[in-house]
Write a structure and sequence with these properties.
The protein has 346 residues and is an alpha/beta fold. It has twelve helices and eleven strands. Bound molecules: pyridoxal-5'-phosphate. The site of pyridoxal-5'-phosphate has 13 residues, from loops.
Length: 346
């Protein structure tokens, strides 16, 4: 069991901070008349404040993911926990985080907004962790290391043993962003939460669950971290309509599983078709719902596709991604169109 000294990690001014106490926090249960929150009394379906603790969603997620509700924080997209983790643990101008390019862009953006120093350690030639190199970059001021597995934009899962060895050697917090875990063969690291107090897992309803529009991100971690995030979040961070939609979708697991299978099948179709094109040099193995495709000329192909009304992501400026485009797996029809257009690129 890896323990952490929480008091060494939390920003000093947040120790013992009292959260905003919302009207509904003081009263638990069902009442006949609610005159405590200065709401408008005329019922239009939206006139009441939503549950600040999103209990119904957390109960559903607790069953689906087999973890306690005390280990679940819900944010307005994953963006919110990414930002809150930095605000909770990193002293601006003093502390630093480690990120591992090529990776998701939001860690860097959030760190910059919060004036937190960023240390970059490149992934190795297989887009996997170079643990000794990461360990050499750690300083006493390193609070968070952001890993992304399966990694965006490369699509591979990071080696589990390497993640574990980092969890063992690092006395700060390791954030593993599992936005794409539902498309992966390997299971989530969730089972390790009880072994490692310094493990924080991010998941989202934006990808496999098909709910990008409602902005619902999950942060799964030990209860002390979850408590702290709950104290510093804005009180009603998940809107009522969004909570409702999440509850509806989370109650239909079969629907989600069907969509995941369809996307995985289309992923295989796209790989086969892309590999047969002369302008494609490599399609990197993917555990996600997108493919990183190494082409003969990413900028030119990207411009061509854009003119044809097909938008992919040009990742050729990212470390280790020269001439690479990132293509999301779409519907069968969408994938056929992108292949057909690529065939007509000359
Ligand atoms: C898409 C994505 C997310 C999801 O972000 P939301 O704010 O939850 O929509 C998180 N992490 C990575 C690496 C992603 O690619």
């Amino acid at each position: 069991m890896k323990k952490i000294l929480f008091s060494n990690l939390i920003r000093p001014h947040l120790v013992g901070i009292a959260p905003y106490s919302s009207a509904r926090d003081d009263f638990k249960g069902d009442a006949q008349v609610y005159l405590d929150a200065n709401e408008n009394p005329f019922d239009n379906g939206f006139n009441r404040y939503p549950d600040p603790h999103q209990k119904e969603i957390k109960n559903l997620l607790s069953g689906i993911k087999n973890i306690s509700v005390d280990n679940i924080f819900l944010g307005n997209g994953s963006d919110e926990p990414i930002d809150l983790l930095m605000r909770a643990f990193c002293e601006p101008g003093l502390d630093n985080i480690i990120i591992l390019p090529p990776t998701y862009g939001m860690y860097k953006v959030s760190a910059r907004i919060n004036n937190i120093q960023i240390k970059e350690v490149l992934l190795d030639e297989n887009f996997d962790l170079d643990v000794p190199k990461i360990e050499r970059a750690i300083t006493p001021k390193t609070k968070l290391i952001f890993l992304c597995s399966p990694n965006n934009p490369t699509g591979n899962s990071l080696n589990r043993q390497k993640i574990k060895s980092l969890l063992n050697s690092f006395d700060g917090l390791v954030v593993v962003d599992e936005a794409y875990i539902d498309f992966a063969d390997e299971p989530s690291l969730l089972a390790l939460l009880s072994e490692y107090e310094n493990l924080i897992i991010l998941q989202t309803l934006s990808k496999a669950w098909g709910l990008a529009s409602i902005r619902l991100g999950l942060c799964l971690a030990n209860a002390e971290i979850i408590n702290l995030l709950n104290k510093i979040k804005s009180p009603y961070n998940i809107s009522g309509p969004n909570q409702k939609q999440a509850i509806k979708e989370l109650s239909n697991i079969e629907g989600v599983e069907g969509k995941i299978e369809a996307i995985k099948k289309q992923r295989e179709y796209l790989i086969g078709e892309l590999m047969s094109l002369s302008i494609v040099e490599n399609v990197f193995p993917s555990q996600a719902n997108f493919l990183l495709v190494k082409t003969t000329n990413a900028d030119s192909i990207y411009d061509y596709l854009t003119k044809q009304g097909i938008i992919v992501r040009n990742r050729s400026k990212e470390a280790g991604c020269h001439n690479c485009l990132r293509v999301t797996v779409g519907t069968e029809d969408e994938n056929k169109i992108v292949i057909q257009k690529l065939k007509s690129y000359a």
